[in-house]
Amino acid sequence: MDKAAKHDSRGWLPALASLPLAISVALISTSSQAATTSPTNQGVKVIEVDTSGAKPASSNQHSAPAKLAAATNPASHQAQTKIPDAKPAKSVAPKAAAEEATIPGHIFSRSPEEQTDILVDKFRKEAYLIKVKNDTPTIIRTFKNLQFGQKDGDKVSEGDMRTPEGVYRITHFIPDQSLLPVYGHGAFPLDYPNPLDRIEGRNGSGIWLHGRDDDDPTKVATRGCVAFENNEIDYLQPILTAGTTVVITPKTEFMTPSAYAKRRASMLGQLDAFIKEWSNADISAVAKMLHPDFRGADGLNREQWVDRKKRLAEMFPERQIKVTDVHAFKEDGNQVVFDFRQQYCAANLFSLDSKRLFFKPEGDKLSLVAEDSTPLSTDGILTAEASDFVAKWMKSWNNNEIFNYLQYYSPNFTYKGGKTLADWKDYKSGIFAERPQQQITYENLKVHQVQPNRYQVSFTQHYTSNSYADDGIKTLTLEGCPGSFAIVDETWKALK
Q: What is the DSSP code string of 456-468?
């Protein structure tokens, strides 16, 4: 507001007091009406963004009688009593929007791969098709009005008419041509009971996700299965495959992003602690994480399993355990299941398995109750690791980097009937100096495992330099675990 505006809004009051009453009232009325419309006299309204429903603060304006009472000298503009300005309301920054609880707190991952899962909510009678991408689950589609077992609660025994609660896998798909009409357009059988169910005495069979009989619209419950509308089974049929995880929970817990991140870190941290102790062969520490009712994949009880692992740790203390594609599933309060790929390497064994660990929450800790394991082929990972090793070894050779080149050889390396790594270093140092322009390529790499931690890698090698060239079959004998190979023997045979 400029100086003239300030004078107009307050300086007229003393002069007004000397006028006849009727004129004064008329002027006051006119001026107050102008004040309500003039931008320079409007009260400032500050509205705070708040979900509490509080009303915005009103302007602090002086009334006309108060202004008249403040005039002390009606005869002169010089003897005015100045009315203080009203204090403007303080501006309040909007509060940050509260996080919305939209993430289902039952599915977690640490994997570059996308994954599709099904989450079934018995309380809401809904199911959610969930895609996990960038380690965050997102609901792609919601299926409503599902049908469950005739009786409430978790399934315990055969024929109890209850739907189980837990973490399961789809085993296969059965088309409608092979089913009775009651199952609608198809069915996805589940692997109920899982290992944890069996340990805790739950039994039964034939728990499916299936459709409905269109000719029996009065049916509102099942004998324990989860029934979808037929069009939903048609939609899911090309999406769900054998091995797809299905989590059946009493009631879905939706979480804010920060709460979800905290739970994910806690769950994966406990798995990492378990794998770390196992990798370090600290079987006593591992034993503390086992539930008293623990059963191993081989059927051993807790004491038998611990005793066997201790003996193996003493025989083969060095090991590497690499866990990838980790997915964790929380049913509710009873089951937490970790699903991952495990690469295990020791002097006596190299294996790749699809593994599941079944935990029970005990306070803020998890206790391992059961495990199961499915062997996977190691051919792909061995070929990939050997190819990577050969490519790096050959790159140092092409770059004429003798020091880096020799790093790929074991201290136990021998060649030509007993020559050592020191002999090899002398020989190769001379070649590198004599032929600085070496160029080597390879093709047709093959890997053959000859012992648990020893492999023969053969390939066609093409060699050229400024003074020499040849083609032949190179065979490297590698020792150690994939990812930490070292060459212990090397042979070459010329191609005819």
A: EEEEEEEEE-SS-
